[in-house]
Specification:
19 helices, eight-stranded antiparallel β-sheet
Amino acid sequence: MTTSDKHQHHHDPVLSTSDPVCGMTVDPKTAAAAAEHDGIRYHFCSVGCQKRFVADPQRYVKAVGVPPPAPASPATADHRLYTCPMHPDVQQKGPGSCPKCGMALEPKEVSLDDGPDPELVAMTRRFWVSVCFALPLLVIGMSGMILPALAHRLHGSPGAAWLQFALATPVVLWGGWPFFVRGWRSLHPLHPNMFTLIAIGTGVAYVFSLVATLVPDIIPASFRGNGGEPPLYYEAAAVIITLVLLGQVLELRARRATSGAVRALLALAPKTARRLGPDGERDIPITDVGVGDRLRIRPGEKIPVDGVVEDGRGPVDESMVTGESLPVAKDAADPLTAGTMNGTGSFVMRAERIGDDTLLARIVRMVIDAQRTRAPMQRMADAVAAWFVPAVVIIALLSAAIWATVGPEPRFSYALLSAIAVLIVACPCALGLATPMSIMVGTGRGARAGVLFRDAAALERLARVDTLVLDKTGTLTEGKPRLVAVETVGGGTADELLGRVAALERRSEHPLAGAIVAAAEAKGLADLLVEDFASATGRGISGRVGGLAVVTGSRSHLEDKGIDPAPLDAIIDRLRADGHSAVLVAVDG
């Protein structure tokens, strides 16, 4: 969409005559500022109110009595591309479940506007409700080991079975409903998965217990224990489903956390930009910025889009792109990158690349693509998982047959339990999920540290790397300069020298000034009186500190002041050999 298209899209917005921030009545014709949100044009009594509104519009929209936007219609529903974390080849528009593994699909493109994960919310609710019902069942089931006499009376009473039925039914039929749905769906495309095993195991245990509760007389004697009562497996079914729900909650939390690095990258770009137009300057959403727009960048603000400096100058922190710890001085025609941080200067830039074309957007896209690629190890895990579920079902049947044939009495009861145990314990979720989640975590954490991987295979190969070769110096840094040494020549102590330099640097905007001042403050050195302060951009500063002339900066700066820095050459060479940046100082020549 072009810039003109975007402006035409909002050609006839609804008008609001009340400042949503402070509540004052505002005449649209004389309002100090205005902004649009969800097709509604709001007017403000001051630019300050407008800035607060643009920063967080949802906080203020109700203040003017404008009804919230209607629920999403089919035309505005979520039409993003969704994919399966275990099977990236499965893709569809809108949310849903994977036909291969039954897991909930997740958006292929991460967005800062994504709200709480609905599946995580639902699974968490099902888990805690199931816990409330499963714990009493667990106590009843374990009572035989703790209090045998109480267990005998409890299991012998006619109401005990109905009590367990009442406790287990909500857990199995409501808490475990998603597992039964996914298990059933896995049978249609013949893609058995972990939910197939869970559904069969818990379903058989619950149905057998239900039959034993409703019509106990039809249970064969070989299934009954010494007391003659038919066994009940409500506890096993309910506790297993509760534990699987816990696993789902932990897995969904981990999956959501893996996208945190991508969200951190997206958050580097500001949400608004200050555009200069014929009607003056005003803050607009970042999505409304067009190619060629002139934008005002104030001190301490992030660069909203890629472009070039048109007017003004100042240092820009580009460490998020280059790794350079020191800000880079920007002047007219110098390039700017979205997400980098402006320092103390103020300038006007011209937008050249916006939206998905910015370098930051391309970095985010590279991280997401790398997370979705399949590593060689993952392909092997997929091949094993394809045969794993059928093999588990066969083993469960063989186990039941062996127990029913040669096992102790009640042999059929043991046979059923052994088959259920094999089905439940052998869930292959970790086999299929471990590799893709480790790739997502690895590529995500790498992106936050400034390391980008082209694909999952590169990340896997990195484990065998024993030598790392860098193509330039100064990029592996803490991202913040720190004073490491003070060396003097010709008299005076290091603290005296540091105190005088720090007094000058407090009045400087150079990136190294903060490190020198911080070191002086850490030592508790007093701020001395400075007179005749002067700054030579990019070279150094000078002034009178405590009555003495102090010059600090580069070698050429000292030479311009008639000072010979030759006595410092040996120290400079030694410090630079260790990778340090040297700042030269002369006191009274």
